[in-house]
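ok so I'm stuck.
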Amino acid sequence: MNKIIKNVLEKLQSNGYQSYLVGGYVRDYLLGIRSFDIDICTNALPKEIHFLFNICTNNYGGANLKINKYNIDITTFRSESNYKNRKPSEVKYINDLGKDLLRRDFTINTICMDLNDNVIDLLNGIEDLNNRCIKMVGDPYIRLKEDPLRILRAIRFATVLDFDLDDTLYNAIKCNYELINELSKERIKNELDKILINKNFQKGLDLMEKLKIKEIIGLEYNEINYTKDLIGMWAQIKVNDIPFTNNEKSNIIKIAEIVNKKTIDFETLYKYGLYINTIAGMILNINPYKINQLYKKMPIKDVSDIDINGNEIIQLLNIEPGKIVKDIYKDIEKEILSGKLKNSKEKIKEYLLKRK
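replied:
not stuck anymore, here's the structure
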């Protein structure tokens, strides 16, 4: 166990409290995946955790530590009941690890580890891990209604880990897929982001189609080429009411325009820049190295690279400042990028005088 994590567990135990690693970190450790998100459960009360680590309590009745690369959440054993709007209206702090694990979502996320690296598996999570199976803790028909986000989380874990959904969970989702309507668009996007950015994204999309979630979210797509950039994935999908930022919307439109053009040249590189063209190139199966080399060969990369300024154009052509100067610049850009005009002051002046 990493020394940083061990020190946190030791601090709790040396003060008389039980403490265990639980959830994603232990699951990933057993799968040979490196993780920096740490969940620790303990019978120490929130105020006691706060006192021990001299930090403020968070909204979940515990505390958060950020040490080097590690993001560590410490929470008190609890039971939860009477869910409303995805949140339990009744939370009781308890002194029982087993009962605390019953409130968690999937068995593979209930495996614990103590200070001495001993694995504690009260709900047979390791068996499901070995069987590559996503199984709900408790009755999935009840647990999905408590929090419909568990539907998308189940699909996300199946995608990222390349596991299968337990038959009972699969059928429960199939019968309750309309619960997705209760989720905010932000929550839906957050889970879809994690599915789409994974190379195994198609498994998640196929599951959502089989379970009618694709239809209810309003996803439309044809064949999708994987890109390491999330915006490149979203640029290949039509979707209703997903809350993109203005910058995300702008980049999605730009990528789509290049993809529709089906080519990357000096003109698209100049207009949209290297980043957008590289993402579009992934979709078009154009080698990023070739795009980068083409970018280096560009005669101009920005209007400021043109070897004549606005005042010089005005004086040369004896014209008034205004929109016409901008139009002339556009014409010069086009000629230089097409290779018809050399980017030198002398050649540009000759060209402008001929066009006067």
